[in-house]
Amino acid sequence: MLGVRGVGKSTWAAQVLPDAHRIDLLDERRHHDYLGDAGMFAGELAALAPGSWVIVDEVQRIPSLLNEVHRFIESRRLKFALLGSSARKLKAAGTNLLAGRALRKHMHPLTVAELDADFDLGLALRHGTIPLVWAAEERDAALEAYVQLYLREEIRAEALVRNLPGFVRFLPIAALFHGQAISVSGIARDAGVARMTVDGYLEILEDTLLVYRLPGYEAKLRVRERRHPKLYWADPGLVRAVKRQLGPVSAEETGPLFEGFALHLLRAHAEEQKLFDELTYWAPAQAMRTEVDFLLRRQREFIAIEVKASKRFERSMVQGLRAIAELPGVVRRILVYAGERSLRVDEDIEVWPIRRFSEALALGRLWP
């Protein structure tokens, strides 16, 4: 199970598997012991009864332990909950990733459905919904500490970058691109680092689960759409903390934050609900100002979703949804907005408040 720090992986494991044997690799003494001698890890597992559950927290810190996990699954039928906040070292090490013997799950920040009556859109956009931050008494301070923890634990301690000052300069610039097509050359220029370095930095953010790159839709027979992916951060609060912008949400921030939050809901519910086979954005090259934020494909059918942070509906908001009607296979067009009324315009374009959108996702009722 992978998820950003503070998302609740350890809490979930402790509640669901209260009798499991727990191994926390954030414990520096244990980490150094196993790093120097993986046999100590094997010896600890060997002392457990066959069929026991084992929780290994922050497993990415010593990827080689997966070989022992594999061996004890086979030899003693031990069952493991492997928790991690980064996939980078797991991929880089090329180690045994338990193919065929493990389910890979992601834990996301809290959704509207999970917060239920406690959900407040303004607070969600200002502070985000990572449980560690949401539950804090001083959320702004918690967000500032979170970014420092990320730099200290994930980046410096794990030696993921050679030029830490360059990475620190890069972070707030990357946050400015939240909800936008990525300009690697522009980020490189503003951060004062090489273009190839920015490519590496973006991979680090993606591997440590802080950002998601949304590809542009490409037609099968002819390429008519832009190919540059859009960059989205995993949580609104993280975007603002990285930019050191923790006061009230400004008008220019609201749109990208709301759009990113809608994407968070899509991705969080998609894993269990099987909402789509592919998720992209649509931006036809011949109409540079026309696009649709999210295009969901399931087999040969599409759902087009546009997101607007306005509390009042205006017909100009559905320009992209009107245009995408020409794409073969579109079975539903939805505008998600910050208002409270559900509407229907142009016969079959639906206008939904964020709560209705969340409910449809949670109940698996997005597809007609």
Features:
368 residues, alpha/beta, Rossmann fold, Arc Repressor Mutant, subunit A, Trna Endonuclease, Chain: A, domain 1, 3 domains, six-stranded mixed β-sheet, three-stranded parallel β-sheet, 16 helices, globular
Q: Beta fraction of the residues? A: 15-25%
Provide the low-confidence segments as ranges. Answer: 221-225
Number of helices: 16
- The secondary-structure element order is HEHHEHEHHHHHHEHHEEHHEEEHEEEH
Shape: globular
Number of β-strand runs: 12
Secondary structure category: alpha/beta
By CATH, the topology of the largest domain is Arc Repressor Mutant, subunit A
Mean pLDDT: 91
Radius of gyration based on Cα positions: 22 Å
Report how far apart the termini are.
31 Å
Tally of individual domains: 3
Largest sheet: 6 strands, mixed
Q: Provide the spatial order of strands within the biggest beta sheet.
A: 7-8-9-10-12-11
Helical proportion?
A: 40-55%
CATH-scheme architecture of the largest domain: Orthogonal Bundle
Specify the CATH class of the largest domain: Mainly Alpha
What can you see in these coordinates?
The protein is about 40% helix and about 15% strand. α11 (about 185-190) crosses α12. β11 (about 345) and β12 form a beta hairpin. It starts with 8 loop residues before the first helix and ends in a 6-residue tail after the last helix. It folds into three domains: about 10-90, P-loop containing nucleotide triphosphate hydrolases (Rossmann fold, 3-Layer(aba) Sandwich); about 110-255, Arc Repressor Mutant, subunit A (Orthogonal Bundle); about 260-360, Trna Endonuclease, Chain: A, domain 1. The radius of gyration is 22 Å and the shape is globular. Mean pLDDT is about 90; it is low at about 220-225. The strands form three sheets. Strands 7-8-9-10-12-11 form a six-stranded mixed β-sheet. By secondary structure, it is α/β, with parallel strands linked by helices. It has helices at about 10-15, 30-35, 40-45, 65-75, 90, 110-115, 120-125, 130-135, 140-155, 165-175, 185-190, 195-205, 235-240, 250-275, 320-325, 355-360; strands at about 20-25, 55, 80-85, 180, 210-215, 230-235, 280, 290-300, 300-310, 330-335, 345, 350-355.
